[in-house]
């Protein structure tokens, strides 16, 4: 019996050691590249709920960031998968992973990261700037008439650029939009998903209108 327990402990120790070594190698590789360009991290908070599609929000946000950095070859955008993993670990270790209390209105969006959080993440990621994009939605409202049914959803998009050097935001703006999805059959309801997507699309269109202003702040 003791031999079995000893073997089990030895196996668990070996697996744990290998996991730590692999993580250290991964961390070293991630933090060491690239050496010839300034690093930029993109952190994206997306809403939950059945209507949400985080992948679509992330794709739209990254497209805007790449447009802002177009021609600025001195910068390198860190892989978002790696950044997401580190941010999640950071949230768990700092007890900021639980959804906000108003789960209906905000649809399980996690608490916003504060300046102190972004500074610590910037140090760890060795990034000059952090683009912090946060999308939240209100609960869908339904309206019905004789010939159509629709759903409206308010979408708030916070677009912030954190400067690690200045320890503050160099750009911060909230874009608010309302998405509407209609169905021309009153017995059916408009789509909450499409309403959310339209509201988010409006917000990113407004961000693009500020593109030159934002670009001038990144150097």
Explain what this protein looks like in three dimensions.
This protein has 219 residues and is α/β, with parallel strands linked by helices. The chain has two domains: 1-32; 38-217, Double Stranded RNA Binding Domain (2-Layer Sandwich). It is built from seven helices and six strands, in the order H-E-H-E-H-H-H-E-E-E-E-H-H. The chain has helices at 2-32, 54-68, 80-93, 103-106, 115-125, 192-209, 211-217; strands spanning 38-45, 75-77, 129-137, 141-144, 149-163, 168-183. Strands 1, 2, 3, 4, 5 and 6 form a six-stranded mixed sheet that branches. Strand 1, helix 2 and strand 2 form a beta-alpha-beta unit. The longest helix is centred in the N-terminal third of the chain and has 31 residues, at 2-32. Mean pLDDT is 75; it is low at 10-26, 102-107 and 185-190.
Summarize the helices and strands and which ones pair or pack:
Layout: H1 2-32, E1 38-45, H2 54-68, E2 75-77, H3 80-93, H4 103-106, H5 115-125, E3 129-137, E4 141-144, E5 149-163, E6 168-183, H6 192-209, H7 211-217
Helix pairs in contact: 2-6
Number of domains: 2
Return the CATH class of the largest domain.
Alpha Beta
Largest sheet: 6 strands, mixed
- Binned strand content: 25-35%
Give the class from helix and strand content and strand pairing.
Answer: alpha/beta
* DSSP helical segment count: 7
CATH topology of the largest domain: Double Stranded RNA Binding Domain
| Element order: H for helix, E for strand | HEHEHHHEEEEHH
**Through-space gap between termini:** 65 Å
Low-confidence stretches: 10-26, 102-107, 185-190
Average pLDDT level = 75
Task: Say what oligomer this is.
Answer: single chain
How many strands in all?
A: 6
Per CATH, the architecture of the largest domain is: 2-Layer Sandwich
What integer value in Å does the Rg equal? 22 Å
Q: What gross morphology would you assign?
A: globular
Q: In which range does the helix fraction lie?
A: 40-55%
């Amino acid at each position: 019996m003791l031999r079995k327990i000893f073997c089990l402990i030895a196996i668990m120790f070996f697996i744990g050691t290998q996991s730590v070594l692999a993580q250290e190698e991964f961390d070293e590789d991630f933090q060491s590249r690239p050496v010839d360009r300034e690093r930029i991290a993109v952190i994206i908070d997306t809403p939950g709920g059945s209507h949400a599609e985080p992948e679509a929000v992330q794709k739209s946000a990254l497209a805007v960031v790449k447009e802002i950095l177009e021609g600025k070859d001195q910068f390198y955008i860190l892989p978002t998968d790696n950044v997401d993993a580190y941010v999640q670990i950071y949230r768990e270790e700092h007890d900021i992973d639980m959804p906000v209390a108003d789960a209906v209105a905000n649809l399980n969006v996690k608490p916003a990261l504060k300046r102190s959080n972004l500074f610590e993440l910037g140090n760890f990621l060795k990034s000059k700037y952090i683009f912090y994009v946060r999308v939240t939605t209100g609960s869908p409202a339904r309206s019905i008439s004789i010939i159509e049914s629709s759903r409206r959803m308010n979408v708030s998009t916070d677009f912030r650029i954190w400067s690690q050097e200045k320890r503050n935001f160099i750009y911060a703006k909230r874009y608010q939009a309302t998405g509407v999805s209609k169905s021309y059959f009153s017995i059916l309801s408009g789509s909450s998903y499409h309403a959310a997507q339209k509201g988010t699309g409006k917000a990113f269109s407004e961000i693009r209108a500020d593109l030159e202003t934002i670009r001038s702040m990144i150097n």
